[in-house]
Structure formats: C-alpha cells, structure tokens
Amino acid sequence: MRKPRKAVSRLSGAALALAVTATACSGLSQGSGDQEFSGQTLTVAGTWVGGEGKAFRKVLDGFTAKTGAKVKFESSRATGVDDFAAFIRDKIKTKKSPDVAMVPQVGVLQQFAQKGWLEPLPPRVELEAARNFALVWQNYGSYRRVFYGMYFKASHKSTVWYNPKAFEKADVQPPGDYDEMLTAGKKLAAAGYPAFSVAGKDAWPLTDWFENIYLAQAGPSNYAKLATNEIGWTDPTVVKALKTLGRLVKDQDLVAGGGTEALRTDLNESVDAVFGKDPKAAMVYEGDFVASIIAGEEKKNVDKTAKFFPFPKVDEGEPPVLSGGDAAVAMKDSKNKDLAMSFIEYLASPKAAEIWAKEGGFLSPNINLDLDAYPDETTRKIAKSLVDAGEAVQFDMSDQAPGPFGGTPGQGEWQLLQDFVRDPSNPEATARKLDAAAAKAYLDASATGTG
C-alpha cells in the first residue's frame, strides 16, 4: 500500500477556516451515510458510454448508497452528439440543464465559466480538493482564480506501448530519447516489425504526438505560451517540432504502411496492429487508456501482453508528462445546488475514485487513492507516474484551444496535421496554415464569447 502524499492547498487562511467549518457541518464529508438527500434526484451529464458508462454508474450508485439521492446520468454520445459544449448549450436553451456536468476539456470548462453557466464550488469542496490533489489540477479547474471544476478522471498521454516479443526478437530496449526511439524503430523494421502503428484516421492522436514532441523539445514555458495563443504557430519552435514529427511519419520503416496507412487507421485498429493475433507493428503511442483497449471485453491480462515506456525526451529537454481529464462542474441553473455540491465533494474523495479504479479503464489524479485499487500492475505504474509528476503535468494543448481549431474533425489542427502526415515535406507551410487557423478560431471565440 502506498503512503498518501501531502497535497498543496490553494486556499487562503480565511477560506480554509470556512472550509473546515463547512466540512464539520457536512454529513457527507464525515461519511455518516445518513441518507440526508433521500427522496431527491440529481441529474448528471457526461460523455461516457459502454464500459466507461457502466463503471461511472457504479460511482453514482456509491453516492446513492451514501446519501439516498437518486442519480440520473445522460451521456451526450449516447444521444449521438460528440460536441459536449453544444449538448449542454441545447440543454440550457430548453431549460433542461443538468445539475452537474462532467466536462471533458479544460477549454470547454473555461468557456462555460466565461458564459456564466457555472456555480463556483464552495470552500468545503475546495478543502477536499486541496487534501487530495496537486495544485496543478485545482488550477486547471479554475477560471480567473475562481474554482469551478473538480477533476475526477484523468489520462496520462505520455506513454508509448510496445509488444515485448517484438522487442525481444529485434534485441532492442526501451529508448532513452527520441533519436534512440527512431534507431530502435529501424532495428525493429529489420526484424520484421515496422516501428509504429499510428492512429491518424481519428486525428486527435496526431495532436497528442505533436504536443508530446513540442513539450519535450520546446519546454513547458513555450508550451504554455502556444497553448494560450501567446506565441503563434509560425514560431521556430513549432516548425522544429513539426520537422521532428516528420522524421517519423515520412519513413515506412517507422510507420506501418506510411502516412497513407496511418490515415486509414483509427485508435482501436492501431492498438490491434501491435497487440492482436497477427502483429503488424511493434509500438503504438497513446495514453493510459490503451491498456483498456488491449484488455477488451475479455479483460485480458495486460501485464502479460504489453509493456510501456514514458514518451522519451527530445534533444536536451525533459521527458514530457501530458494529461487531460474530466472535471465535475455545478451548473448555475441547478435547482439542487446543495445536492450538486455534495456530489462533487464526494467525487473529490479517494473512495469515489476507488470504485471506478477497481473496474479498470480509469486513472485518477487523486494522490490519496491507494494504488492497490487498480486492477493490474501496468495501470498502477502509470498512475504513480502521473501522481509523482505533480506540478510538472501539462494539459492537452488542443483541449485548451477553441473547438474549431483544437477539437473538430475535418478542420483546424486535426485536419492540418492529417495533411502533414500525408505529406510532411513542407513543415513551414503547415505551420503557416496552423497559424492562420488558430488566429481565426481565437478571434471568432473572442468575438462570440465562446473561448
């Protein structure tokens, strides 16, 4: 059992005193289970479907058992809507706003706060967050220094997964830097395995590729500036990162089938290409959720099937730690604000995280969640890596951008990086197109108050 680490509090002394008082008065915080909300109903909206939806349902059942409140969960994806911001906007227009929304992108959280759709979280929730989360997670849940979102589910997007049999056959070891990774890729190709299967059809994994390279190569300061549009996409650091990515995607020894095949391959297919019955590549890059894809419905033992190594450093930089996550926010239109706040306080507890952790397919930034709650050693290692990174964690850049640039199929960064994978010969031209698309998206978002 891992000893809990001390969280860094973001609260002022006055707020902390208020939080202690509020917590002392909260039956939920003391774990009384006195059914204080019996007869009431909480509505929660999110994006999870399938296995994730079922696992979250167990978390909701835990809240019901504790408080007596019924919980109704509605998934935007189950209704055929991929744009969560649009889903919530329509709910507000029809006066059917949920009490709590599980927001999947930090940019969307900030958009909701800017529009005045969110209720600030009270001191007692801030206290629970300060006990259980590093300061970086509290800051990403804030807008203009007001705490609106409590991060419940996280992802670790700096993991490279590999087939150990392929590595053994080619006599290669996990690399220490990007150059070593490409060199190992050449040896793997010579042994019969192209280095990577790349999920270019989905497009968003390409943004993750770029962001890991950029963070590792340009450093966290430049990363933060690019993520907030403080520097443009024609900056030399961007061109350099595109060239570094281009070294990979232009080489068919390094990408199975080259860029053309990558653009026909989605994430599930890329994972299957490495860990399926007939492996076609040795490695696949993506986040911790690759483990749940490998396990599948059969719940295969990931520890025996796959291994991973951290996304390597590039040049003289540090290895990146890139993340994303889903934050619980209370909607301003909620008629059940006290119930909503108690639910978010519950989600901030290690107990709530433990319920989903045991089900698999989940990672928590909660530093007081016992790592033994995770179902396999592989996930435990990833969770420890994320928690130990502390303040070094950087959030997914595309998730921080306006949707038309950072999160929409067929346009913006998604489309332009797909074009680059198809033809990586002119990174300067790609940078100019990215800069123009970003400038328009940020300008439109500023004009309409959506970013």
From TrEMBL:
<comment type="similarity">
    <text>Belongs to the bacterial solute-binding protein 1 family.</text>
</comment>
<feature type="signal peptide">
    <location>
        <begin position="1"/>
        <end position="24"/>
    </location>
</feature>
<dbReference type="Pfam" id="PF01547">
    <property type="entry name" value="SBP_bac_1"/>
</dbReference>
<dbReference type="InterPro" id="IPR006059">
    <property type="entry name" value="SBP"/>
</dbReference>
<dbReference type="InterPro" id="IPR050490">
    <property type="entry name" value="Bact_solute-bd_prot1"/>
</dbReference>
<protein>
    <submittedName>
        <fullName>Extracellular solute-binding protein</fullName>
    </submittedName>
</protein>
<keyword id="KW-0813">Transport</keyword>
<keyword id="KW-0732">Signal</keyword>
